[in-house]
Amino acid sequence: MAGLNVRFTDEELDALRERAAAEGRSMQAFAHEAVIAAINEHARLFNEAAEHVLQASAELNRRLA
Fold it and tell me: Please, one GO biological process term (predicted)?
């Protein structure tokens, strides 16, 4: 499996450590889940926007066909 090094400020690292500890998880597991959640949210927002554009332009597309 490939690895990735991410740099944090001391304050960010402290916040990450505190949040992970509060949830009883390792910092690595907490950060990994946060990144995957961000990726999934980005994909969801993109799909939502694409669906909106398709619906909004459906009549125009029908006329141009």
Answer: regulation of DNA-templated transcription
